[in-house]
Structures are given as structure tokens and as C-alpha cells.
Design brief:
single chain; 605 residues; alpha+beta; 6-stranded mixed β-sheet; 5-stranded antiparallel β-sheet; 17 helices; 20 strands; globular
């Protein structure tokens, strides 16, 4: 669904660049250029708001000026309202956020600033889709105060962090990246950008440059609505490069999922082309200028389905493989690196879910642990790719010896088939390639790099084909649990949960499920395709949702290693691989998660 409608959307852009009333508030020249350029972008075909529906305010002196313009725009908007503010954010004594005017005084901010609550009050249409973008210090505080039925708030900084307006730069750090994303697009397999796509790229760009981490909040999945066209000239990835991976893996996944591919007819290349008469058609042209829509579209659609149904932790790496960065659009060292990352993520996922299940069995039935497992498990403080498969084999063997079937029952058969040459050779070859890539890659010539890349592609394909049964299962995160108990009746536990998928249009779908049992309210779990069952597998403490207690939007983390400084355990965010691992399970982080991880280790050691 599109958020923007040219005639039904209104926009208000406010920039406060001059501050004459309080010497402690320095001027922000970038606020003016922020607004002026953003106005052009919003009115362009990229976003598509009618120019006459965009109101800009520069250096408004009184809060009423800003509030009146917002109120009028809200009254005139019949679908959506976009509000952008660039200027100083100020906290009062009670830590409420105010947006400054050119006449604001810090000591009198209650009278001279615009409160978030006041913005709430002047937007009187409850069903209006409201997007509030704040490029101001402490702007995350708006999350606590902005309350509309359908809203999305994008903040340039955390609630205790100032935003950055580099003095010598034309734009602020946050708005510079926002404009860049809207103008130039994102290298993903999409022709349009949802708000969440924009946020994830903003977060990546800003944190990689040392700027404050932006924040987002929303209700009713407004984050999934389409905000802009994707202007990236690599919107359609090098599908032919991935052809030999996509096709066999897609058909392997199709055995476990009822997959339909839009208007594509599998035995007929005559399809309805959604990009006809569109500038995107240029990206399908071959060297002779002919346009092969059919095959490239089918490959891209198949790649999307693979990403849609593989578990999130694997799908995020597949997404990067299928939509490579410009430096990885040929067979080079960067592509080899991404193939290895995809392989390691696959094996880590299986290893971790088996460890989580083994802990459950140890607690419930005191299942005996072998000395071989205990020896391997000692490496859990700093797990390397080489221990994943040995741990997988040993845990499955423990289950078989004790007459138990793993939650993912196909792993039992898969272990027996592992000794077949094709999978075993693929595993050993990728392990060997990883060691060589670390120590010898600098000495490889172009031919050797391409040879190793082709070999890695073939081996990864073999592994993904044989593990396609993973697509049968879904990942969820449990947000909260409400107990409903009637007199003389058994209790029901209503779980508010998120279905987790890598594709933006699905990740974060919230559903309420009444059950006669309960699980952890911060956990990531694996379940069957349809309704939840008693056999839900809780993957704590190796995966968890950091935002369970504070935010509508899932923020899924996986365990990486023990932190040598804090003595706690570090986790890495799934959606933002370039962000450094955080010691979340520690005395300075989440003490409950630390206690959980220690219990997990002690039980299996």
C-alpha cells in the first residue's frame, strides 16, 4: 500500500536556522538547506506530493505559527500527512521534548517551544496516516508523547543524544543521508521503498560514519507502507550471476511451500511485465539493446520467494547475495566473502536451534550429555564456523540415542544423508575455501578468484537445496503475554507476536494468539507454518528480540561471542550486520538475559 497520494497528501516542512532570543542556542544554517532540498525531493516523481500541497516554514518565531500550519494541513489531507522539522530539540525539567522556534528560550521553553503534545492536539483526524520526521536533538523522546492511531515517527537521535549539524556542511548529517537515499535509491531488489527500507539504510549509513543512530516507531505497521520510488540503478540485481543458485534452490523450497509467482506462468515466458513503459526497463537490456524482461523478472521473483521463506537469519545473507553491492556484481573476493557468510549463517542457525532444544530436553527429562558434546560445547564462548557442523551432528546423535526426534524432524534424515558425497564434499570444500580465503586470497589472480567463486556457488547451492526443508518452519518473536482466566476454567495465554520474515512487507506482522501454555515474552521461537502448537521451540538465549519491551518494531539479535571486557555475552543485530556486536547479556545490559545465558551454559557444560 502506498502512503503518498499526490492529491490526498499534505506536507509541512519546518526549518529553524536562526536563533536570536537565546545565546545558548547557536544558529543552524543547514536547517534552511535541509527544508529547501527536501521540498524539491517530496515534490519530485520520487515521492510524488503535489507541490501546492507542501508548506514550508523558515524561522517561525512563535509556536502558534507552526501549529496553525500543521492544523490546516491536517484538515486538508484526506489520506496522509508528512511533517518534517529541522532545528534544536530542547528538553524541559520533566524531560518532555519541545521543538524550538527562532524566538525560543531554553528557560521558557514551555511558552516558546512547540510541544509534541500540542502537535497531537492540532491533528484531529484520527484515521489520518501521519509521518513525523524530526532532525533535532533528543528526538526519540517524541515516541513517548506522539500518539495517533496510524503514525510513523523517524528520529535523528536517541532520547539522550544530540543530533549532528556539522558546521561546514550544507546539510545536517541525518537529513543529508535521508535526501541521498530518496534521490539515489537503495541497492535492494525493489522498485519502491517502504519507510522501513529507508530507516534501515539510514541507520547503516549514519552509524558507519560515526553519527548518532536514528530511531523509528510506528503503529499498525505504517513502517511497511510505500513512501518513494527506488532510484537505485541496481534495483534489479545481476540475476544471471545468481541464476545457478536461484533456480535449484527455488524448486527445492517449492516442495515445502505452495509458491505462486505473480503473473508468471512457469512453462510460458509470456508474462505481464509490471515495468513496461518504465525507466526500469533499461536495467533488463543486454549488450545488443534487446530487452529480456521474462527471464530476469522470473529469476528476481524466484529470488524474492527464496528470501521470503528461508529463516530470517539465513535470508538476510541471501538477500545480500542476490542483490549485491556494486563491488560484488562480478565473481570476485567480495562475492566469495558473501557466499561464505551465507553458508556460516545457515550452519549457525541450525546449530543454535538444536542447542536451544537440547537445553529444553536437559531441563525436562535430564537427557544425558555425551563427553564429545561437552568438549565441543566448550567453544561456545567464542564459536567459530568450524564447530557448527560437529555440534549439529553430535546433538542430533544425542537425540537419536535417547529415542527423541528433533523439533525439525527432517534433521534426523538429513544427518543420515550427510555422509553422501555431495553434501559432505560441499561442506569440506567451503571449510577449506574459508581457510584459504583468510590466508591466501591476496595471492589469487583473477582466474583463480573466479574459479573459487564458481566452486563456492555450486557448493552453497548443494547445501541450500538439501536444507530447503527449513522453509517449512516460521520464526516469531513474542512481544507480550496476557493471561485470561475465568472462574473454574483453565487459563488462556494471549500472546502478541511478530511473524519474522526478511522481506520488508512481512516482517513485523503483529498477531494475537490464544494458547493454553506460555513462553518467554522476549523470545524468538520457531513454529510450524500455520497456527501455533504446543511444540513451539523457544530459541532463547541464542536469539532474542531486543525491542520486545520498548518498541513495536522487532529488533532481532543473535549470539556471537563472550565479551572479554564485560564478561557478558555479545549479540549482533540481524538487520544491521555492519553495526558492532553489543554486550547485551551483561551486568551493564540486560541482566535477565545474562542470567538466562549462564543457566543455559551451566546446564549443558
Amino acid at each position: 500500500m502506498r502512503l503518498i497520494d499526490a492529491a490526498k497528501t499534505q506536507a509541512v516542512l519546518v526549518g529553524i536556522s536562526k536563533y536570536d532570543a537565546d545565546e545558548s542556542l547557536h544558529d543552524l544554517p543547514a536547517a534552511k538547506t535541509n527544508v529547501d532540498t527536501l521540498e524539491k525531493v517530496l515534490a519530485s516523481s520520487t515521492v510524488g506530493i503535489n507541490k501546492e500541497n507542501i508548506t514550508t516554514l523558515h524561522n517561525a518565531g512563535q509556536p502558534q505559527e507552526i501549529l496553525k500550519v500543521i492544523k490546516t494541513a491536517a484538515q486538508n489531507a484526506s489520506k496522509s500527512l508528512v511533517i518534517y522539522y529541522s532545528g534544536h530539540g530542547i528538553l524541559d525539567e520533566d524531560f518532555n521534548l519541545y521543538l524550538s522556534t527562532s524566538e525560543s528560550k531554553v528557560e521558557d521553553i514551555f511558552f516558546t517551544g512547540v510541544s509534541i503534545d500540542a502537535i497531537n492536539r492540532v491533528i484531529q483526524k484520527e484515521r489520518l496516516l501521519v509521518v513525523l520526521i524530526l532532525d533535532a536533538c533528543f528526538s526519540e523522546k517524541a515516541f513517548e508523547q506522539f500518539r495517533k492511531t496510524n503514525f510513523y515517527v523517524l528520529a535523528s537521535s536517541k532520547k539522550n543524544t544530540p543530533s549532528k549539524y556539522p558546521p561546514a556542511e550544507e546539510y545536517s548529517a541525518f537529513t543529508s543521508e535521508l535526501i541521498n537515499i530518496l534521490e539515489n535509491g537503495i541497492n535492494i531488489r525493489k522498485t519502491e521503498l517502504a519507510l522501513r527500507d529507508i530507516y534501515l539504510q539510514l541507520e547503516k549509513n549514519l552509524t558507519s560514519k560515526g553519527f548518532p543512530q536514528p530511531r523509528q516507531a510506528n503503529t499498525n505497521l505504517v513502517q511497511e507502507l510505500i513512501f518513494a520510488k527506488n532510484n537505485s540503478n541496481t534495483v534489479v540485481p545481476s540475476t544471471q550471476l545468481n541464476r545457478n543458485i536461484i533456480l535449484p534452490v527455488f524448486y527445492a523450497v517449492a516442495k515445502y511451500r505452495n509458491i505462486q509467482i505473480g503473473t508468471v506462468i512457469e512453462n510460458d515466458l509470456d508474462i505481464e511485465n509490471p515495468f513496461a513503459e518504465d525507466e526500469l526497463s533499461a536495467y533488463f537490456e543486454d549488450d545488443e539493446g534487446d530487452t529480456n524482461y521474462s527471464e530476469n523478472l522470473q529469476l528476481t521473483q524466484k529470488a524474492n520467494q527464496i528470501v521470503r521463506y528461508f529463516p530470517l537469519f539465513i535470508a538476510e545473507e541471501l538477500k545480500r547475495l542476490f542483490a549485491p553491492s556494486p563491488s560484488e556484481q562480478e565473481r570476485n573476493l567480495g562475492r566469495i566473502n558473501q557466499i561464505l557468510r551465507t553458508y556460516f549463517s545457515t550452519m549457525r542457525y541450525i546449530c543454535y536451534l538444536l542447542l536451544a532444544e537440547l537445553w529444553d530436553e536437559k531441563v525436562k527429562s535430564n537427557i544425558p550429555i555425551s563427553s564429545t558434546f561437552q568438549s565441543l560445547f566448550k567453544e561456545i564462548d567464542n564459536p567459530t564456523p568450524s564447530i557448527y557442523l560437529p555440534l549439529i551432528e553430535e546433538v542430533v546423535e544425542i537425540f537419536l540415542q535417547n529415542g527423541k526426534t528433533p523439533y525439525i524432524s527432517e534433521l534426523t534424515t538429513w544427518k543420515k544423508e550427510f555422509e553422501q558425497d555431495n553434501f559432505k564434499n560441499a561442506y569440506l570444500s567451503l571449510e577449506s575455501l574459508y581457510q584459504n580465503w583468510r590466508t591466501q586470497a591476496a595471492t589469487w589472480n583473477i582466474e583463480k578468484v573466479e574459479e573459487n567463486c564458481l566452486e563456492a556457488e555450486n557448493h552453497l547451492t548443494t547445501i541450500l537445496e538439501q536444507l530447503a526443508f527449513l522453509a517449512k518452519y516460521e520464526l516469531i518473536s513474542i512481544r507480550s503475554i496476557r493471561v485470561i482466566k475465568l472462574k473454574n476454567r483453565d487459563a488462556n495465554f494471549v500472546h502478541s507476536l511478530n511473524h519474522l520474515f526478511s522481506d520488508t512487507n512481512q516482517s513485523g506482522q503483529i498477531k494475537k494468539e490464544p494458547l493454553n501454555f506460555y513462553t518467554d515474552s522476549h523470545s524468538v521461537c520457531i513454529t510450524k507454518q500455520t497456527n501455533l502448537e504446543n511444540e513451539i521451540l523457544n530459541l532463547s538465549p541464542l536469539f532474542f528480540d531486543k525491542n520486545t519491551y520498548t518498541n513495536n518494531i522487532p529488533s532481532i539479535y543473535f549470539y556471537e561471542r563472550k565479551d572479554s571486557i564485560t564478561g557478558g555475552y555479545s549479540y549482533r543485530p540481524t538487520f544491521s550486520r555492519d553495526v558492532a556486536a553489543e554486550p547485551l547479556a551483561s551486568t551493564s545490559g540486560d541482566i535477565r538475559l545474562l542470567e538466562l545465558f549462564e543457566a543455559f551454559k551451566n546446564s549443558l557444560s
